[in-house]
Fold each of these.
Amino acid sequence: MPFRHPDRSHDLVARIEYEVRERVEEAVDYVCLEALVRDRRARGQAPPAADSVDDRRAYTADVLTFLRLLHRELAVGLSADAQRKAAHLAEVPGDEQAGLIAVQVAMARALPDYWQRFEAVSEDYLASRGAEGSGTSACGPSGRESRGLLARLFGRR
């Protein structure tokens, strides 16, 4: 067990950082792919194809657009010091996407309500994409159960 050794506490920090980064990347990926699918569906086109250069370009543009929107919307609640740190993290030479992901990882670790705010921004972003309804299913806006385990157990809304 690598975390039992007192000199390996940095391993736990690195693992948490990695897990949060992976979760942020997956969430951004979902939102941007959903936006691309909605755009294509609204225009009556076929779903995006993994081997299409145009679809990859559109997806990459969606990722940058969504990450910039997240940065603008979620930075509002940060202190001046945290905003400076976020601006510093965003400055990755030659790779804006990596910088914006790093900012989201830092925000996810710093803001207790990050995922609720992320969900609200992503819902607004998706609502602005594609004219095909709200895109919500019976389970909620993300296709998953919208309520937490305790809320479902106790019948709370």
Amino acid sequence: MDKEILKKSLIFKNMDDKQIEKCLQALKAREKNFEKSSIILGAGQITESMGLVLSGNINIESYDIYGNRTILSNINPGHIFAETYAILKNEPMLVSVVANEDSKVLMLNITNLQNIINAKEDWSTKLLMNLLMISSNKNLILSNKIFTNSPKTIREKVLVYLNFISLKKNSNEFNIPFNRKQLADYLNIDRSCLSNELGKMQKEGLITTKKSHFIIHKKTTK
């Protein structure tokens, strides 16, 4: 198990090796490997465990009754998923967790949350605080998702999303975690319409893009 990934992950923030080890024991940690496109957790499933991505990349997806996919978020190494469903016992998942590439995940059983609370040790206090911070951070991401999908036109949606990533990366040049199809699903727009709009924006000098790489060109004032 990659100890550096664990130390850098938000769930184990501010913990030393011994505290992390106690957490892993309390959460009955187990590693699992998933091939690209395989379902890690499916909609309708009840889970007792949250997952920590150790390597690879996964998507949180939802499908409507016609099979149309919407990508809700992308999870990279060091980040967790399904913690809300694991804490809320017997709550069926409304989304699916899918491997975007070959991935390794550390499954952490959190059904005995009360025991963790009762432990009242340094590691348990830090774990609970970290879960609270993760929850708060995800609320911000959800707010951005709603903000991104609020604009009416395709260009507005694209610009809001690219501006968010630019601010997050603190750079006008960056890679996004999606290919064209995935970005279209995330923004809830047609792929061909997205490609056409990106082409227009590039011709107008607003952006430069190739695959998942983007450069935003700031307007200069005369």
Amino acid sequence: MDEQDVRGSVEAGLIVGEETITDRDVELLRAIAEHGSIHAATNALERSYAHAQRRVVELEEALGPLVERQRGGSDGGGSSLTDGAHALLERFERLDTAAEGLVAVEQTVLSGRVIERDGELGVVECAPGRVRALVPPEEGPVAVAIRSDAVTLTPPAKTPDPTETSARNRFAGVVRAVERGETVARVRLDIGGETRLVALVTHASVERLGLEPGREVVASFKATATRATPTHPD
């Protein structure tokens, strides 16, 4: 899933490459998580089992593994969602919340200077470390903006290898505050260099990751979701 260009559309849902993840897809994945199998999920949703299986295969071709299956049994075997599927559901929930205007998307802004370039992308030296981002063509100091809804949090032991994901930016951090709203929470992380990085996550993510002050996590975000703009110091 990380290797694809993922963007949000208020009407269409999440668009991944050429595949669109709709409300019905999200409803199916949530039902699989709740009922423990595709068969039980389709019974609860009153949908075709065969069609649901085909749809899961289509989604996995675009996104990577979403459902872990255990073969056997009268109900076709048990199933559970992968970490990638949980991340997809959380991304969809954040999109819905932002689309409804229920929460403002906060940004973390880091000051730095471009030290490497590769076309539109570059590496910016910032206080907490180096950040890959979309960079301006001109030289000089820049401000790097990181949207809170573009940040993914994972436990240190479950963080993918950098070669296995396009989210090349990653910082080890410690949770300093969890500010809960009605449906989402802002998590403020200390990532070093007197910098606080903000991540917008769902309540389900807070519970699943055990997010609380003092918890160690890894924050990841894609270079293409991070933009550096020129600054003009006085």
